[in-house]
Amino acid sequence: MTPDGRPFRRVLIANRGEIAVRIIRACRELGIETVAVFSDADRHAGHVRAADRAIRIGPAAAAESYLAIDAILGAALESGADAVHPGYGFLAERPAFAAAVESAGLVFVGPDSRTIAAVGDKLAARRLARSVGVPVVPGTLEPASVKDVEQLAAVVAAADQTGYPLLVKATAGGGGRGMRRVAGRDDLQAALAAAAAEAQAAFGDGAVYLEREIRPARHIEVQLFGDAAGRVVAIGERDCSIQRRHQKLIEEAPAPGLSERNRAELHELATRVAVAAGLRNAATAEFLFDRDGAFWFLEVNARLQVEHGVTELVSGVDIVHEQLWLAAGAPLSAAALAAAERANRPAGHAIEVRISLEDPARSFRPLAGRVGRFALAAGPGIRVDTAIEAGERIPPDYDPLIAKLLVHAPDRAGAIERLARALDETEIGGVQTTLPFHRFVAGNAAFRAGHLSTDFVADHWNGPASRAEAVRRALLAAGLAAFEPEPADGHPRGPDEGAPAQQGGTSTPGTMELQSAWRSDGRATATDRWPR
Amino acid sequence: MTGRGAVRVRPIQVGGEPEDGGLVVDPDDTGARVEWLDREHAILAEEPSAGARPVSVRTRLMIGPARRRPDDGVMVREVVVDGWRVEVEVEAEGRAVLRDRVRRGLPARGSSGTIEIRADLPGRVSSLLVGPGDHVVAGQPLVVIEAMKMLNELRAPRDGQVERAAVQVNQAVELGDLLVVLQ
To answer: Is B71 domain-assigned?
Structure first.
C-alpha cells in the first residue's frame, strides 16, 4: 500500500481489449497510474488510448507479445510499475508468469503462483476437491498417456467403470479443445486417439483424463475472494449455461431457480475448495448442476472472469477494486464481507451477453473486420464494457469479443425486458456479430422460463434459418428503398411531414408488431396522442 | 434509381461475389413498402399474404448509404436486420439480366478450367500443404488457416493439379484472398 493510502502507485495491465480498459478504469478510480502494453496490431487500440502510458511489447502474434513473459516483465520494470494485473486469458493462469512477477519484486494481482499451479492443473484441482470431500464429476484423477500401453489399458478399464456416455478431456486443455464425447465403448479408442492428438497439437501435452458426461446440466460458478489472513468468502454465483463450443455466450447472476439451501450448499463447497487451494485474491469455482439438484465440481479459474460484471451488479462489490486491495495486502473489504453475508439471498438480477465478431449462422465461426456503425445501449440499468469505437479494425489475432452488454434490474423478468430493450438500441454495422443470437435468446420462452442448460444453443438456435429470413427482408427492403428516396437530412421526419408516421399508425386488430419495429410503433403512438 | 420497374437485389458473399438468384423486387407488386425513419433507418412494412404471413409485419432495419461499386457501377449497400448484417447489390432488372448473360458467356473466373481457392475467413496461413505441380484429390486439405487459435483446413473441391500457391506460411489473409489455384 502507498503512504497516501492507495493500493499501488502504478499498475501494468498485461492484457488488451475490454478487460484491459475495465482494469484501467478501476485503477483510475483508486488513484493508480496505469501502464498498458500493446502489440503492433494494437498500436491505436482502446486500452492504449485509455492508459496513462503504453509500451510496445512485440508483433501481432500473441505468442510474441501478450504471451511474451520477458517482454511484459521488461515493460513493467522499465515503467516503474509496482504491480501487474493479468486480466483474463493470455498469461493470467500461467504459474510461470506469476512467479516471474513475484521474483522481480513486483506484486501479481491474482492468486499466488503456487495456487495457480495447484488449480491450473485440472486433475490436481479434481484431486484437491475430492480430498476435502467436494463431489467431483466421476472419472479418472491421474493424467494418462494414450501412447503408453499400460496407461491406455487402465484408461479403458476406468471408462467402463465410469460409465457411458463420457468425455475424454485434455489434461492441459480448455475451451473444449482436446475434448471428445464417447457415446459407448466402441467409440472409446478412436476418441482417445483423437483427443490426445488434438491436445498434443494445441497444448504440447497429449495427456488425457475421463469424466462422466452429466447431461442435461447447468454450468454454475461461484465468485470467491481470499485474503492474506486466510479468510475466504463466496459473494455469489453465476449461471453460464448458454455456451457454444464450450465457450460462454450469456451469463447471469444469481443462477435462476436455486433455493436458499442450494446456494448455501454451493457456496460452501466452493469455499472449501478455495480454502484447500490457499486462495488469496479472486478466483471462481465452476460446477455442473444436474437435474437431481446435485453440484459437481469442475475446476477453479484462478483469475478475473470475463463475466465478473454480473456479480458486481448484484453484489455491489467492485471485483477489480477488491483484487487490487487484496493484492496490496488489505483484508477482505467490508463490502465483500457484507456481500458474502447476503449471498444466499441475493437481491436483484443481472444478465450479460457477449457481443463477439462471430457468424451465428455458421457455428459461431470467429470473424475479423472493420466495425462501421457502433451504437450502444444506454439508460437505466445498463452497463457496457468495451474498448472499441466506430471505424475500428478488429484484428484476427485475438479473441473476437468486442463488447459486453450487461443489464441490471430488480428481478429476472425485469432484467430480460431490459436486455431486450438494450439489444433493440444496440446497432453494429460493418461486421457480423452475435447480436442475432442474443436477440433470439432475449425473446425465447425457454430462456424466459429459466430452462437453462449447456445444450441450449443446440436445442433452440437455428442460425441458418434465422439468417435466411433476415436476408429475405434485407433484400426486399433494399429493393424497395431504391424507389423511395431517403430523407435529405439526418433527422427523423416530424409528424407534420405526413406519410410515414401516419402509415406507421396502422395498429389495426390482427397486426403483428415485430420487436424490431418498436421504435416506429412507439413514435406512431405518440403521434396519435399529439394534438393536431 | 429513377422510374419504376423491377430491380434485382442480391446478397454479396464472402469474397465479394454476389450469390445466385437473389430477389426481383417490383415496387408495385410486392405487397410491401419501405418507410424511412431517418437517413439510416427504415421500416419494412409487409402486408398479409396468403399462407406464409397471415398478418402484416413491420421490421425496423438499418440501411446504410448506397454506394456505386467502382468496377461496374452497381449500387451496393449494407442492411442490418435483427442483428444480421447483409451486404446487397441492387441493379435494374434489365441490366442484371444482361450482366448475367455476359458473365455466363465468359469462361469461369480465373480462366478456363482453373479453380481459385479463396480464404473463407480471415487469419494467418499456418501451413501450406501443397506446392505447384502437386496432384490433389477432392477433399484433400490444401491450406490451414489459423484464426482465434483454431485451425481451419481448406480442402480441394475436386481432383486437380496445383498451378500455384498465392500465399506463404505465416502470411495474414483477409476474407476472400486468393490462396491456391488448381488446374
So the answer is: yes
- Over pLDDT 90: what percentage of chain A? 83
B169 touches chain A (CB under 8 A): no
Same-domain check for residues A105 and A48? yes
DSSP string, A411-434: SHHHHHHHHHHHHHH-EE-SS--S
Within a domain: B45: yes
* CB-based contact, B40 to chain A, within 8 Å: yes
Mark yes or no for CB contact B59/A514 under 8 Å: yes
Q: Which residues of B touch A474 (CB under 8 A)?
A: 11, 61, 79-81, 84, 86, 88
Instruction: Read off the DSSP letter of residue A186.
Output: G
Overall average pLDDT of the A350-365 stretch = 96
Q: Number of folded domains in chain B?
A: 2
Residue range(s) defining the domain that contains residue B155? 115-182
**B56: nearest CA partner in chain A:** A511
pLDDT band at B152 (very low <50, low <70, confident <90, very high): confident
B39 belongs to a structural domain? yes
User: Do B60 and A475 lie within an 8 Å CB cutoff?
Assistant: no
CATH of the domain at A249: 3.30.470.20
Cβ-based neighbour number of residue A313 at 10 Å: 21
Distance from CA of B41 to the nearest CA of A (A): 9
Strand A33-39 and strand A53-58: the pairing is: parallel
Residue B134 lies in a domain: yes
User: Does pLDDT of B15 surpass 70?
Assistant: no
B61:A432 CB<8 A: no
* Angle of CA points A342, A348, A351, to nearest 5°: 120
Q: How many CA atoms lie within 13 A of A159 on its CB side?
A: 27
